[in-house]
Description:
six-stranded mixed beta sheet; 15% strand; 40% helix
Amino acid sequence: MPAEDSAGRRRRGPSMADVARLAGVSGQTVSRVANDRNNVDAVTRDRVQAAMRQLGYRPNSAARALRNGEYRSIGVIVFELHSFGTTRTLDAIATAATISGYAINLVPVLDVTQSAVTNAFSRLGEQAVDGVIILIEAHTLDEAGVRLPHGLPVVVVDSSAHYDYPIVDTDQRQGARLATEHLLGLGHATVWHLGGPPTSFAADRRRRSWEATLLDHGREVPPVFDGDWTAGSGYEAGRQLAANAEVTAVFVANDQMALGLLRALHEHGRDVPGDVSVVGFDDMEESAHFWPPLTTIRQNFVDVGRLSVDALIREIHAGEHHHEPVAVAAKLVHRSSTAPPPTAAPAG
């Protein structure tokens, strides 16, 4: 709370004039230091900053924004905060923004509709942000009824929507192809797929790439089992996969569902990887400690966050605008959950 004087009145905080008097410089010099101008010599800048610290002076960010035309703040509109990929991407965005000197204003949306997206933009407009990153990983964002308001620089993360904005994402197709070809390369006749929800862009891209890879190699495409990204849904689908003796290899659309699948396989007496090989997607920290440790596809969330923030800052500063999606490479992490298929027992 603000300090009070002996009469119980609030004392004002230290002013720019107070800093100028203590540092022995003009108010204009203090203003230059407060606004990070480069026309102040290093010795004077250090003296002014020392006076600011001694007095507890903090520059008025709102006033500075009016002078400089920049708030040093980025808005992030996000849906499904609970998912692993979203939380890791948010963490990467926040880290990259902080390194670049920007604060983050987070606005969750509960439903991906035109009104929800418009309201989120309105809220961010009231909070005075320089640009917006949209992290809404759902097909509904690409529907004709959902329009992104104009007036702010925008970057879209983890989406295949055809917007006139920069798009940054992991190369989902490459990751799914790596997983499928790894299993085929071990000698499995085909690869089954436990996919994410049909509403998901990432799940759709992984599913399509898995299917295309099988067809490219002349292999049969088995039916898809859909989950909802949770270990519980992986377990339920896994019970059906485990009961099918033809299943020797499964590519799972994320590590959490792979955890549920592993439990189902163990309960049905299917050894991993002796009977069934399993590959996940994400490389969450816990996947190295599953039993067995999970072979998976690593997403580089740090690069996705950094590149999305970099793209937005370019739009904010220079008006640089590009339309080509930025695809961050995925990587296969080979652990103990994959092996060649079991050999057939000799006849007779």
